[in-house]
Design goal:
alpha+beta, five-stranded antiparallel sheet, single chain, about 170 residues
Length: about 170
């Protein structure tokens, strides 16, 4: 069978457009809290503006599992009040992710986080409170708030077992 032949034996037509269908997913309702983990966290740039882009993957509730939410954290916004709020959001995410971002930046003497430092935010579950955006006829979700996931904190290290006291006379050598 030729590569450009379908399973029915028809030749694929050379056309300039194609629509796969599948419909659109409605956004997760405004105010919904979800358990999610960051899959990616990197610097991005769009039209000259740099921002931190976080790709979140929803784990719970089950009805929204595996949905993806993109968050733009505009820590360099020209509006300083927006930049300040963005830095507060990033600090909350970093804290809920275990604080490794702060440690990595300090260790590497970074003035702003590098992509390598930002990777410390990944794979740490936290609760996101979502909002809905609507722009030019399209809708989606944005992150309004973050908080720690209950029970997601690392378990404390176990206490060492007590050392038994042994008399020298009991040792066979």
């Amino acid at each position: 069978m030729n590569f450009w032949q379908t399973s029915t034996g028809e030749a694929v037509q050379q056309v300039g457009s194609f629509e796969a269908g599948g419909g659109t997913l409605a956004p997760i309702p405004d105010g919904t809290a979800v358990l999610a983990s960051a899959e990616e966290s990197t610097w991005k740039e769009y039209q000259g503006a740099r921002y931190i882009n976080i790709k979140w993957r929803v784990a719970k509730p089950a009805e929204y599992a595996n949905r993806v939410i993109f968050q733009k954290i505009r820590v360099n916004d020209e509006d300083v009040s927006k930049a300040d709020r963005a830095k507060q959001m990033l600090a909350a995410i970093a804290t809920n992710a275990g604080g490794a971002l702060f440690q990595a930046m300090q260790k590497n003497k970074e003035q702003e986080p590098s992509d390598a430092s930002l990777s410390t935010l990944c794979n740490r579950p936290m609760v996101l409170k979502l909002g809905v955006w609507d722009m030019n006829g399209k809708t989606g979700n944005h992150v309004n708030a973050v908080s720690p996931a209950k029970g997601a904190a690392p378990a404390p290290a176990p206490k060492p077992a007590p050392v038994a006291q042994v008399e020298d006379d009991d040792i066979p050598f």
